[in-house]
């Protein structure tokens, strides 16, 4: 529609989730009209995300060091692991202040149509953690907190099958009441907190 670089920018922005062509156009023209330092700061931030973001060795959360803030906090209960799809889900659950355990990030959910099977998720790493935690503690509960949608449910069912025979391990799932079909991060703190405290035992 437009000529040259501004259209390229709109095309790139429109590929981002939740933006769409209109939102992309608004941001592109905002940047064009603004101070050039704003573009410099944005470019620098993008470069840092590309080059400097690392992930926790233990749980897969975003980390500034080898271990994330939660895994390196000895006050967190290492006998409980809450399994989530993405790092952003950790922040949603942390906001409820209902959970004092640790996390495990799968990096997505099972979605065979998009070619995402168990090997594409950090399931092997989870099983390894159950066998040997880095601090020697034994995991007694896995809380499956995948999203309340088709892929999330399929992932929960798969995990349950993998985990049900671990001796001394109980597997729980967030209570119903979360908006079905949605993302965990869109649930308000109260609803998510209730789903967490009312979690049901699967095995
Ligand atoms: Zn971690």
TrEMBL record:
Alphabetical UniProt keywords: DNA damage, DNA recombination, DNA repair, Metal-binding, Zinc, Zinc-finger
Pfam families linked to this entry: RecR_C, RecR_HhH, RecR_ZnF, Toprim_4
Key word Transmembrane present: no
InterPro entries, A to Z: DNA_Rcmb_RecR, Rcmb_RecR, Rcmb_RecR_Znf, TOPRIM_dom, TOPRIM_RecR
Gene giving rise to this polypeptide: recR
Zinc finger (C4-type): 56-71
Family stated for the protein in its record: Belongs to the RecR family.
Annotated Toprim domain residues: 79-179
Name of the protein described by the UniProt record: Recombination protein RecR
Function: May play a role in DNA repair. It seems to be involved in an RecBC-independent recombinational process of DNA repair. It may act with RecF and RecO.
Species in which this protein is naturally found: Gordonia liuliyuniae
């Amino acid at each position: 529609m437009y000529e040259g670089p501004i259209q390229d920018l709109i095309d790139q922005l429109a590929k981002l989730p939740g933006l769409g062509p209109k939102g992309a156009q608004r941001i592109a023209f905002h940047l064009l009209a603004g101070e050039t330092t704003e573009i410099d700061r944005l470019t620098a931030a993008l470069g840092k995300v590309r080059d400097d973001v690392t992930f926790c060795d233990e749980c897969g959360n975003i980390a500034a060091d080898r271990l994330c803030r939660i895994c390196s906090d000895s006050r967190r209960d290492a006998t409980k692991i809450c399994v989530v799809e993405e790092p952003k889900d950790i922040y949603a659950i942390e906001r409820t202040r209902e959970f004092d355990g640790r996390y495990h990030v799968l990096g997505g959910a099972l979605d065979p149509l998009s070619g995402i099977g168990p090997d594409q998720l950090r399931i092997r790493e989870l099983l390894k953690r159950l066998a040997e935690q880095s601090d020697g503690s034994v995991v007694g509960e896995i809380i499956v907190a995948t999203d309340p949608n088709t892929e999330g449910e399929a992932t929960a069912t798969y995990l349950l099958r993998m985990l049900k025979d671990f001796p001394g391990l109980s597997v729980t799932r967030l209570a119903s009441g979360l908006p079905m079909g949605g993302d965990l991060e869109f649930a308000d703190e109260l609803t998510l907190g209730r789903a967490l405290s009312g979690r049901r035992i699967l095995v």
